[in-house]
Amino acid sequence: MNMAAGNALGYEAAPAFSAPLRFFLTAPLFGVLAGVLLLVMPELLESRWTPGALALTHLVTVGFMLTVMLGAMFQILPVVAGAPIPATTVVATIVHLLMSAGAVALVWGLGAPAPDVLVIAVWLLGAGCAVFFVAAAIALLRVPITQATPRDMRFALIGLGIAILLGLTLAMIIARGLALPLVPLLKLHVGWAWLGGVGMLLGATAWIVVPMFQITPPYPAALTRYWAFATFTTLLIWSATVMYELTSIEFVIVIALVALAGAFIGNTLALQRRSRKSIPDITQRAFQLGLGSLIAGLICILVSYHSDSPLWPVLSGVLILHGGFISVMLGMLYKIVPFLAWLHLTQAGVRAPNMKKLQPDAPVRKQLIAHAITLAALIVATLGVSAWAGRIAGMLMTIEFAWLLNNMINVIRAYRRAGSA
Ligand code: HEM
User: I want to staple 59 with a disulfide (CB 3.0 to 4.6 A). Which of 31, 43, 63, 365 is the partner?
Assistant: First the structure.
């Protein structure tokens, strides 16, 4: 990380290394499980409605993505938003245990399907999220909202909270026959999770992280000032059109949401083109792959409104989740983990080795290439070319996430070696 830019951040407030790290090391294990599941059941990409497909989706979304996001927030809230989480280590331990066990139960309950296990998942995930959101709210309420990142972090956390509450409600509808309408709530769950939670969190973090990591000019002031508010408000209006079944207005609002997502993506890509880095580093490439996939995924969503083919929703899921969000998260993980190792060594008074020594480029490049090949294989498998395509995609996915775990463990090994030298 660029140290001049780094002076703007509150590193002295950084939590113990173990707080975010336990999440970062757990997440790839869920990715490996997702790969193994697809390897064994390649037909899961044929339709979004099978129990197996729901299990696969949540191995990726809750097991990998939510776990990475929670871990990152233990770091981002104090350092980037100036809002340290109270009793960080205790909160991180409780949240990590409840959410990991809850993710396993959710996937099992959805996939088996096993209603009683799904209810256990609701309790575990509900408790884990409650602890996290209360702690994050206490942290954020203590800081003034003069800056874009802490303000938009509140929108993102509320958006994520709404998505999770909807998910827990859906689980209770399935497991206990709660008398609520499943289809509109499912639509809202997916919309709020993708744009209200993950998308807005990405935006709030990007305002600071993209100019800093990728040495670009800042985002346009109008975008950082209004984007999260406009997105949040439009999501609320969209939710009303879904609940009241105002189908034709709904499509117009969906176009507005896609335009808002496009404004964020377009501005980020434009800024990256103005990066002062002579050669774009490999994580910047991961970002570009992610943003390109998000655009393709959004187009598939628009097409899915006018086509009954089961292909479009699955393809949008593959492009947005694996191609979009996971690519960006990989790019961020490869910046955050070695930087934290370096920071904690330095704070402990140890002469820390260069970050390239803690995490050499070659294994990162190879893992990201494996990730891109996996995405291509997933797309081919979704197009239904052959049953083997699904198995190959599953095998590649298993390899890519095991490789990610291995790369991160190697950073921790280098950190330990430097610390004991
Ligand atoms: C932690 C709490 C979560 C719970 C309890 C949960 C629960 C559920 C349930 C029960 C369904 C299935 C509804 C049905 O059968 O009709 C569902 C669908 C879905 N969820 Fe979640 N979810 C959670 C988090 C997330 C997150 C964080 C994301 C994305 C970032 C996500 C993405 C999806 C998607 C895309 C579907 C639709 C699956 C499909 O179309 O194949 N979920 N969720």
Answer: 63
